[in-house]
Amino acid sequence: MHSMHTRPIAVTLALALGAGAAAPAGAAAVAPFSFETAYGRLPKDVVPLDYSVAITPDAAARTLSGKETIHLDFRKAGSTIRFNSLNETLSDVRLDGKPVQSVVSSDEQQLTTLTLARAAPIGPHTLSFSYQGKIESGPRGLFAQPYVDPSGAKGMILSTKFESTDARRMFPCWDEPAFRATFELTATVPAEWAVISNMPVARRVVHAKTATTTFRRTPKMPTYLVEFTGGDMARITARSDGIELGVWAVRGQEQDGRVALANAQQILADYNDYFGFRYPLPKLDSIAVPGGFSGAMENWGAITYNDQLLLLTASSTIRNRQAVFSVQAHEMAHQWNGDLVTMGWWDDIWLNESFASWRAAKETDLRNPAWNWWEGEDEAKENAMSADARVTSHAIQQHVTDELQVTNAFDPSITYNKGQAVLRMLEAYLGPDVFRDGIRVFMRTHAYSNATSTDLWNALGKVSARDVGAIAAGWIEQPGFPLVSVTARCDAAGQRSITLAQQRFLLQGSDPAPSHWTVPLQIRSGAAGAPQALLLTAASQDAPAGRCGEPLSVNAGAIGYYRATYDPETLRQDAAAFGTLPHADRIALLDDEWALVQAGREPLTAFLALAALMGSDLDERCWNLITSALETVEHDLRGKPDHEAFEAYARSIVAPVSSALGWDARADETPGIQTLRRSVLADLGAWGDAPVIAEARKRFAAFVADRHAIAADDQAMVLGIVAQNADAAAFEQLHAVARSAANETELRRYYLALMQVREPALAAQAAQIALSPEIPPQANAARLRMVFRLEDRNPALAWTTLTGNVDALMLPQGRYAPLITAQYCPEIFWDAAPLDQVEGWVKAHVPAQMADNIARGMESARFKLARKAALSDAAALFLNDRHGAPAN
Ligand SMILES: [Zn+2]
Hints:
Layout: H1 8-11, E1 46-58, E2 63-74, E3 78-84, E4 89-95, E5 98-99, E6 102-106, E7 111-120, E8 123-134, E9 141-148, E10 154-161, E11 182-190, E12 194-197, E13 201-206, E14 210-215, E15 228-231, E16 233-240, E17 243-250, H2 258-275, E18 283-289, E19 296-297, E20 302-306, H3 318-334, E21 341-343, H4 349-367, H5 373-388, H6 412-430, H7 432-446, E22 449-451, H8 453-464, H9 468-477, E23 482-490, E24 495-504, E25 519-525, E26 532-536, E27 540-547, E28 552-553, E29 563-566, H10 568-576, H11 583-598, H12 604-612, H13 620-636, H14 643-661, H15 671-686, H16 690-705, H17 712-724, H18 728-739, H19 744-754, H20 760-771, H21 782-791, H22 795-804, H23 806-810, H24 817-828, H25 835-845, H26 851-884
Parallel strand pairs: 1-11, 17-18, 18-20, 21-22, 23-29
Antiparallel strand pairs: 1-2, 2-8, 3-7, 4-5, 4-8, 6-7, 9-10, 11-14, 12-15, 13-14, 16-17, 19-20, 23-24, 24-27, 25-26, 25-28
Helix pairs in contact: 2-3, 3-4, 4-6, 5-6, 5-11, 6-7, 7-8, 11-12, 11-13, 13-14, 13-15, 13-26, 14-15, 15-17, 16-17, 17-19, 18-19, 20-21, 21-22, 24-25, 24-26, 25-26
This protein binds zinc ion.
């Protein structure tokens, strides 16, 4: 699955989650995969080999009737058969044509147990039954998704979302990933509907008003990857490497999939080569689901996407185009890592998700060099490191004892972003060709089967002749990451040597159990030197490090998932050379310095001094980090006497960039430069820059008269500035713009801008709008994001809006609602209400199993409150000192 790749507020809405779970401590190293010993609740003595599943959904009644025939292998003689079911009633249950003695289904256990009149012998048997089931209203199992198309017409499609444990909601099955089998799906739906599944259509029979379609039998695969979509849909197609590629959308919108179709051709060719194993299905469809869920799901041969992550129109921005490419690259990587080779049990969900995230970033960077993709991914890494610098963080790999809790109890910033960063660090250490060769061995060895982390380390170890498992263990099996401290010395000849030491980095609190890592460092001495790899294995270790006086980085290229702190003289030398350092080394220095400030280990002035050295340099990621740090301090000073002075200071830091870039894009600019322009203007508008506010208002007036007056990419920035400074008349204009949105891309953009309004009475109106029926059903999930957006300027209002409407706001979030409530709500609403009140409310709204998530959310909330006190004091001191200094 994939989450939306956008800024932190969207990261919190990363709803396309995988799985993981809550064990209090890190897991022990796992064995290579074996079906016999793979964890699971279902017995291994009766296993499914092949399913024929025929469904007849009644979309209006939200019910489903089905017939199922399963070829079983009895590996032991026995008289019970146990499998998963949920909300299904089975009838006419027979083994080898004879009725079974009893059928007991428990929705609480999500299990059905059949008892046979006589024990069945070892060998093949055939189980058959009919059943009645449900069509869901939210994104799990087979679900109905209503929508309103751009012409205002109402429609509905059926689609599926099974990961992790919801295939059992559409058909009774062995719903654990180690039980691979082949599937032949048949569906009877209205004759005018298009139908899509994992495999191409084998045959179709038209009746009076319905048609029955049978799809070709799949390869051996886990249940959670089975897919079915039906509705008034149409597609466009192309071929790549002999595979038919399709993009499906609600009829009339399929042409908006042209970019996605071209992307898929490119990515498929690249992956066929990289994995050394050709994509094994005859076709690969990408399906744009209107609404439904917020991310995408890698069903084998039939990937489903929220349509906002697949279709592009004239209303789309560069960020939309980047999201489409990178999410496709993620889901298509899963066709190998996840689908062809599946984790043995949910403990190793990171094998699916970290790998697909890392591979997608590599592919996106390769095919879009102007996007500087890895620099942008540094933001995702920093988000993971913030989460992982909590005492309550958890290991990437954790034991899952109850798969029903799989989705609730994990943190996507760890499973996706930390895992991606750790794989990138390992790839850099082993070398990209060696790493790829190891992946090829892994694919060949485990194709059409399952694997554990240990299998991956063994494959990488085989080609690299290194003990990869020993290096990886500390990163995968324990929470957190190290702070590497660097102390330099010079000899008489000017040669530098360094002493490296490590301890766990925490934003607050202390390491409950002293941790240790094997750290693959990349050491660069001199601004232009090539980095040297060094494995830090001891608690303290010496190494040569170039010549004295040269700048020094022990995280060259910002590739490492660790922080570094340098002795004062080395830091002074790095600062002196700051303008000449490679971008990524500067990014690493800024990232670490800001983290050390937040942890109270460095003064705020040390970070601000580095920020001031940027001048008019135009590196987007460096500025992105600096402005978000300035935004944090500005936020923390609101309502205090120094707020205005700090806003003026913050404006002075970004003014050189704004002067260099102006308002209008030039043809030869990279997307990064354009994004930087918009982000700096947005900050200046938020920080009260009068000329910027006036220009935004002027441009908005032109836009009200002519919707082509502002480029799609600039609309969110201009409308946001207008909203923050809006009076009642401007608010009404913004609302009118939102109501007239031509499509969902515009709708989300305009309504989110409206939520940035500051004036309390207008904000109260905005809150009512976010809850109103003027938002169409396919955008229901966006309402929660609107409430989160309100929080920035009107926290108390946003809190009462959330708590007063929590059921309606969380319903579209499906099974991720408990995670959002338990963990993200405290992180977002930390300054909206007293924390004991927030904690009490959260506890009352999630199951008791979410205690670890609540602890993580509350630790972040308490940290932010403490940081606010520390940063506002530090900023006051800084401004006081500055007041006496000469003007710059
Ligand atoms: Zn994924």
